[in-house]
Amino acid sequence: MIARIIKFLLLPLFLLAQDHLYITEVMIPPETSASLAFVEIYNAGDAPVSLADYYLANYNSYYRLAENVYSSRTDEFLVRFPDMNIAAGQALVIALNGAEFYTNFFAQPDFEIKSTDAGIPDMQPLWLGSAPKLDYSRGMIILFHWDGQSDLVQDADYMPWGLLPFNSWWMDKTGVSIDGPDDNSDVSEYLADLTKSQQKARQAPGSGLSLQRQGLDEVSEVQTGGNGLTGHNEATEDWTASFISANPAPGSFSPFPGDGAGTAVIYPDTVETNTTHDFIIQLTGSADYTITNIEITVPDGWTWGQSESDVTVSGDGASGCALSVDGQIISLTETQLTDQQLLSVTISGLTSPAEGGWYPFKVQTSVSGGNLTQIAESPGVDVQKVLTIREVLENFDTYNGQTVTLKAVVAIGAGITRTDRTDAYIQDGSGRGLNVSAFETDFPDLVRGNLIKITGEISEYQGDPQIQYFETEVLSTGNEVPAVGFVNLISLSTPDLKGAMIKTAGVVQEVYTFTDGNSNITIYDPTGDVVIRVWQTTGIDISGINTGDTLGVQAVVDEYNGAPQLLVGYQYDLYPGVIEIVPSGSGVVTVSPDSVGLSETASLNFSFSATSDQAVSEINIEIPSYWGWSGSETDVQLDGSFAGGDISVNTDQVFISNVSLLPGSDGSVSISNLQTPAVDTASVFNIRTASAGGILTAINNNPVILVGKGTQMPVIPIAQARLLPEGTKVTVKGVVTIGSGILRSSSTNAYIQDNSGRGINLYKSSRDADVMRGNLLIVTGVLEEYANSYDDIVLEITDYTVRILKTNADMPEPLSLSPYKMANLGTEYEGTFVEVQGKVNDLQTDDYGQNLIVADNSGAVTCRINIDTGIDLSGIALGNYIKVRGIIGFYRGDVQVTPGYQDHIEIFDPSTLPGKDLVSLKLPNKPFVPESGEKLKIEYTIINQNSHVTIRIFDLAGRMVYTLFDGIPYDIDLSWNGRNHINELAPVGTYICHLEVVDNDTGDRQVRMAPIVIGTVLKR
Question: Fewest beta carbons less than 10 Å away: which of 352, 538, 635, 844?
Answer without folding.
Answer: 844
